[in-house]
Every structure is written in structure tokens, then in C-alpha cells.
Design goal:
Serine Threonine Protein Phosphatase 5, Tetratricopeptide repeat; three-stranded mixed β-sheet; globular; Immunoglobulin-like; alpha+beta; 57% helix; 3 domains; five-stranded antiparallel β-sheet; 14 helices
């Protein structure tokens, strides 16, 4: 960000110098025009590098490129005017106007705030991050959202920060706002937001789960049966009202989607404690017998291009989705798992349906999407890695997809 400001300042200083040059120094003016172009090309090359490395998005690149081009054009026009009439009083006014206009456009387009956010997020991911960095990130997010109230991704991040900082009332208000803005077809994001809203309300109510909050969590599970935060809290609610069987059922579902870790050990401990409570009152929990169900299975071989394999993000989530080629946009089946070694094979089947009436077996051809999500959400976000395969014949039983592009 410092190099950006220095580059812009240097362009402005050169523009002012050109404006004050007398008409007789035409040769020097031409030379300085060439210098200005070189600076422009150097800065454009820097922007290209920042975009390729993922430090700025495509939209930010386009905005900053337009700004550079406009400054270069303004400089050229001002130089020609100076050569023609050599005016001294118009020059300072034009230079001041150029400075104010450039600064206003830079701020208005949001480039400064976005670059500031990028730097703070990078800082927060480092071991040196501290409370002051979190305060600065919170303030920057609040400013960004005030200027761009439709920025749902940053709203969700800020709401999570509020919740983690125990500002539960603010988190509840912001999660509710996000929920109102999400489109109905954004099923996975709505489920995640409902779960986070329910969790924030749970803590705001002094770790008590009232009926309204429990209803939110059940809605989240209805939208996404693998919404872990909702499953965990619903199990806690059932346990606290001594409905131990229901608690065990919820926690068994949660355990099935939780990788082996300290968290999975804690879930097993909760399940065993619920079983002991049942036994203490003369009741025994019998694991339900799973009925044999014949489902359509589609095996998907997932790989990643050699170029993207070099820049795999840490702690990311892999989503593999099947969508109807001609039909509803809601996924027919979703596989979610922590990032693993490629290539790998996953199974999509009717048991993974988002809605009972929309199953993969009911469609002849589907689109397969494989996405590496850094946010942990199924909806594509800028910076995610993705690959697609269209017109997959479901009855063939197998296909492949290569993750080979960056979501802009």
C-alpha cells in the first residue's frame, strides 16, 4: 500500500512540475512525458503481480488500472497546455484539482479501504497479531461496511469477530441483517448464518436456549443437515432438558462429520455422558439400525492443476457439488471435507440431497463443481479455487473434475 501511495504521489509531483515548465523547454517536456509513461508501465506491472499473487482482486485491479490511466492522460493534457501557453496561475489550480480529484476517486472507489483490510487480514493470520490488530481490523471492517452495506462477506466476518469478542448483541444484529440480504437460493450460506445467529443469541441469553433460538437452529439443520454449530447446540439444548436420546441423536450426526480431533473426542464424551444419564434412570440407549437404502452413486475423481497445487491454502475446505444441468439451482448433493491430498475420489449420492424432493437420481445429467473454499462456506467467494465438469451422465456412475481456476 505504501508503494501505491508513493507511485501516486510521484505522478502528481511530475504533473505539477510539467504544468509549471515554460514553453521554451519543449524537449525536456517530451523527455518527462516518456518518464511518466515508464512510471505508468512499472506501476501497472506491480498491479499485475499483486493480482496474480492474490493480494488484490480483479475488480480492485481494474479500478486501480483505470485510475493510473486517467492520471497519465491528465498529465499529458496538462503538459501540452503548459507548452502551449505557459500559464502560471492556472497551473497551481489545475494541480490542486488533480490531487483532490485523484484522492476523492481513490477513496470513493474503496481501493484504500480494501487494501487496508487486506493488510490487516494478513497481519491477523501471523503469529505476531495482537489485540491492537484486532481492534484495527474491526474498525476497518465497520468503515468498509458503512460505505458498502451490500458487502456480505465482510459483514459476516465482522459479525464473527463481534461474537468472538463477546459483543453478542452486535453479532445478533449483524447476523440478522445478513440473513435479510441473502437470496433464498443461497441455501448453504443461509444455513451458516442461521446457525451463527442462533449461537450468538444463545450466548447473549446467558447460555440459555429459548424456543426462538432453537427454532433458528432447526431451520439451519433443515437447510443443511451437516451444519455443525447448529447440531452441537441442539444437542446441548436437548441434554439440558434431560431429553438424552435426542441429544445423542444430534451429537451422533455431528460426530459423523467431524474429523478425528480433540473436538471429536469431546463429542464422544458428551454422548457417553448422555448414555450414562439414561442408564441411571433405568433406560438403555440402543443404536438405531440403519435401513438398507439403494441410492444412486456418482464417484467423482477430483484433482488440481499443477499450477494451483503450488499455492494451496492452509486450513481450507473442499466442496464437491452436483447441480442439475437443466433444473433448480440448489445442489442435488454436496460433499464437504477438510482439504486433503490430490487426486482423491468422493461419492455423491441420494443421501446427500439438500431437499428430499431433489435427488441426484432424479436427473439425467448434472454439473459437477469442485471448490476449495478458504472461508469454509459452500458459496463461491473471491480467491476460492474451482473446477467444473458439465453434462455428466448420472447413470454412468463416475466422472472426474480438475480444479484449475481462481474465483474472481
Amino acid at each position: 500500500m505504501i508503494s501505491l501511495w508513493l507511485g501516486a504521489a510521484l505522478l502528481l509531483v511530475l504533473a505539477m512540475a510539467f504544468l509549471w515548465l515554460p514553453a521554451k523547454r519543449k524537449t525536456q517536456d517530451v523527455d518527462r512525458k516518456a518518464t511518466n509513461v515508464v512510471i505508468f508501465k512499472d506501476r501497472l506491472a506491480e498491479l499485475n503481480t499483486e493480482r496474480e499473487e492474490g493480494r488484490i482482486s480483479q475488480d480492485e485491479f481494474n479500478q486501480l488500472k483505470v485510475e493510473l490511466e486517467r492520471n497519465l492522460l491528465d498529465d499529458a493534457v496538462d503538459i501540452n497546455a503548459s507548452i502551449k501557453n505557459g500559464g502560471r496561475w492556472v497551473a497551481p489550480a489545475a494541480a490542486l484539482f488533480l490531487i483532490v480529484l485523484s484522492a476523492a476517486m481513490y477513496w470513493k472507489l474503496g481501493a484504500y479501504q480494501q487494501l487496508q483490510l487486506t493488510g490487516l487480514l494478513k497481519r491477523m493470520s501471523s503469529p505476531e497479531a495482537n489485540a491492537q490488530d484486532l481492534t484495527a481490523l474491526t474498525s476497518a471492517l465497520e468503515t468498509q461496511i458503512a460505505n458498502h452495506p451490500d458487502d456480505l462477506e465482510n459483514e459476516f466476518l465482522l459479525a464473527r469477530i463481534y461474537a468472538d469478542s463477546e459483543a453478542y448483541d452486535k453479532a445478533v444484529q449483524l447476523f440478522s441483517q445478513i440473513l435479510q440480504q441473502l437470496p433464498p437460493e443461497a441455501t448453504m450460506d443461509r444455513a451458516a448464518t442461521l446457525a451463527q445467529l442462533g449461537q450468538a443469541q444463545f450466548f447473549a441469553n446467558g447460555r440459555k436456549l429459548d424456543k426462538a433460538t432453537e427454532s433458528l437452529l432447526k431451520d439451519a439443520v433443515d437447510l443443511n443437515p451437516e451444519e455443525s454449530a447448529a447440531l452441537g447446540l441442539l444437542g446441548i439444548a436437548a441434554y439440558e432438558r434431560t431429553d438424552y436420546r435426542v441429544a445423542i441423536d444430534y451429537w451422533n450426526k455431528l460426530l459423523a462429520i467431524t474429523p478425528e480431533s480433540q473436538e471429536s473426542m469431546a463429542i464422544r464424551g458428551g454422548i457417553e455422558q448422555a448414555k450414562q444419564q439414561l442408564a441411571a434412570r433405568g433406560d438403555v440407549y440402543v443404536e438405531p439400525v440403519k435401513a438398507a437404502v439403494t441410492t444412486t452413486r456418482l464417484l467423482v475423481s477430483v484433482d488440481i492443476s499443477a499450477e494451483l497445487k503450488k499455492s494451496l491454502p492452509a486450513n481450507a475446505t473442499l466442496f464437491v457439488l452436483a447441480k442439475a444441468m437443466n433444473g433448480p439451482k440448489i445442489p442435488l448433493a454436496v460433499h464437504k471435507a477438510p482439504l486433503s491430498t490430490f487426486p482423491l475420489t468422493v461419492e455423491l449420492n441420494d443421501g446427500m440431497a439438500m431437499m428430499p424432493t431433489l435427488k441426484i437420481s432424479e436427473f439425467e445429467k448434472v454439473q459437477i463443481i469442485a471448490r476449495i473454499s478458504t472461508s469454509g462456506e459452500a458459496m463461491a467467494k473471491p480467491g476460492d479455487l474451482q473446477g467444473e465438469t458439465d453434462n455428466v451422465v448420472v447413470k454412468d456412475g463416475k466422472t472426474s473434475v480438475v480444479i484449475n481456476s481462481l474465483v474472481p
